[in-house]
Amino acid sequence: MKTKTGSGLVRIGVLDHTGPSLGGGTMVAARVAWLLSELYSVELIRDWSGFNVAQVSAAFSLDLAAVGCRGLVDIWESFAIPSRYSFRRQLQRSRELTGEYDLFIYAGHWIPPFCYGQHGLIYCHFPIDVPLDEQLLLSDERWKKRPSADRWLRTQAYRLAWRACLSGYDHILANSAFTAHWMKQRWQIPADVLYPPIALEVGDSKKHNRIVSVGRFVSDQRSSKGQLEQVAAFRDFLERAQAPWELWLIGSCYAEHDRAYLRAVEQAASQLPIRFLINPERDQVLEVLRGGKIFWHTGGLYENQTADPVFSEHFGMATVEAMRAGCIPVVISSGGQREIIQHGINGFLSSNMEELVSNTVALAEQSSRLAELAKRAVERSDQFHARVFDRRILELVETMVHRRPRHRGRRRLLKLLGSSPASARDQAGEDSTREILSDSQDPSRPRR
C-alpha cells in the first residue's frame, strides 16, 4: 500500500541530471525511482530524447511500470548563478521543476536546483560544476560586459543563494569518499557516503583465459575509458604471456561523434584476439563476465596526466560488478577505485598502463593465485551490494516524508522572489525558459 500524508498520496520526483545517455548515473536514479514506487507516487525526470522508459528498464533490469515519466527538453545546462540566466529566472526554473513534490531527489553531477518541494535529497556522482566557476563566467559575454561593482554584488548574492540552495535539502549524499572529499573542496559542504547499488547476481561458470573491459566508447580523451590504450597494452601482454588469452571490449556507443573512436579501436584490434560487444543486453554482459578471469578498467588515465579530479573514476561500478562475477580487477589507480580494491588482496591498482600489463602478466601465470583472488574479489564486492543502498534510501525517505518541512521561512522568501514579475532584461528569454521546463515526457509513457 502506498504512503499518504494529510494532503494525499506522497509525491516524489527523482531528477537524473546526467544527460540522455545510459550510464551508471541513470542506473542509480532509475533504481531509486523503482525502489520508492512501491510505497509512493514517483516520477523519473530526465532527458528522454535518446531512450524511452522501456529501454531504461531493459538496460538496468528494473521494472519501471509503476514509475511516471517527466521529460525536460534541455537539462545539460546546470542551475548555476550567475551565468546564462538571471537569479529570478533560476528560481522560476527551480520552482517549476521541484515545487509539486513532497520530496525532490536530485541525482547528478552538476549544480542542483533550488528545492521548492517539502523535502529534498542530493545524491552527487561528482561535483563537476563549481559555484562561481571563473572559467564559466569569463566565457559569458554578458558577464564580462557588466561593471566591476555589478559583478561584485552579483558574486556576493550568488554566495548567499548557493547556501540557501543547499539548505533546502535535508540530506546530501556522495557516491564515494573521493566524491565527498571534492564536494567539500568545491562546494564547501560535507556529504555522507553511500556507495551506488550493485545488484548483479552471477552464478558459477567455467572460467577462460579472458580479460574483460566494460565501459562506454567516447571520443573525448578526458572522459575516455581508455580502450585504445587497452588494445596496445593487450598486444604487449600477449608478447609476454605464456598461454593464449582473449580480450573482450564491452560498452555502449550511440552518439555519431563517438563512433569514429570505436572504429579506431576496432581497426587497432583487427589482428588481435579481441572481441567487441557493443550496446549489449544485460544478460550478454553477464555471460561474458562469468567466463572472465581478469577485469581491466583504465578510466582516469587523463586524470593521472593532468591531476584534474573531474576526469577520474569517481567510483567504479563496473569494477564491482566484475568482482561479483569472480573477475580479478587490474585497474588504473584513480578516484573511487582505491576504495573498492585492496591492492594485492582482491585486485591490483596500477599507476600507468605499463604497470597494469606487468600486474596482469604476473597474475595470469599463477592459476592457484587466480582462484584465491577471485574468491576474495567476490567477498569484497558484497560490501557494495544494492541491499545496503536500498535500505539507507528507504530509511531516509521514510524519515523525511513523516517530518515537518525544513527552512519554511527561507523557502517562502525564495518563492516570493521567484513569483515577482520578470524585468524587461529577463523577459526576452522567457520563452526559452518555458521550453526547457516543458513537460515533454517519454512518448511511450504518460505522466501520472
* Class by alpha and beta content: alpha/beta
How many H/I helices? Answer: 19
Domain count: 2
Relative strand content: 5-15%
CATH topology of the largest domain: Rossmann fold
What would CATH call the class of the largest domain? Alpha Beta
Question: Considering DSSP H and I runs of 4 or more, what fraction of the residues is helical?
Answer: 40-55%
Mean pLDDT: 85
* Low-pLDDT runs: 416-440
- Give the end-to-end Cα distance, rounded to a whole number of Å: 17 Å
Principal-axis shape equals: globular
**Biggest sheet architecture:** 7 strands, parallel
- Do you know the CATH architecture of the largest domain? 3-Layer(aba) Sandwich
Radius of gyration, taken over Cα atoms and rounded to an integer in Å? 23 Å
Structure description:
The protein is of the alpha/beta class and 448 residues long. It folds into 2 domains: 4-197 and 387-436, Rossmann fold; 210-384, Glycogen Phosphorylase B (Rossmann fold). 43% of the residues lie in helices and 15% in strands. It is built from 19 helices and 15 strands. It has helices at 24-36, 53-60, 87-98, 134-138, 141-145, 148-167, 177-187, 227-240, 256-268, 282-290, 301-306, 317-324, 337-340, 353-364, 367-381, 386-401, 408-419, 424-427, 430-436; strands at 4-5, 8-9, 11-17, 41-46, 68-71, 103-108, 119-124, 171-174, 192-193, 210-214, 246-251, 274-278, 294-297, 328-332, 348-350. A 7-stranded parallel beta sheet has the order 5-4-3-6-7-8-9. Strands 12-11-10-13-14-15 form a 6-stranded parallel beta sheet, with helices on both faces. The protein has a two-stranded antiparallel ribbon with strand order 1-2. Helix 8 runs parallel beside helix 9 (256-268), helix 8 crosses helix 14 (353-364) and helix 12 (317-324) crosses helix 15 (367-381).
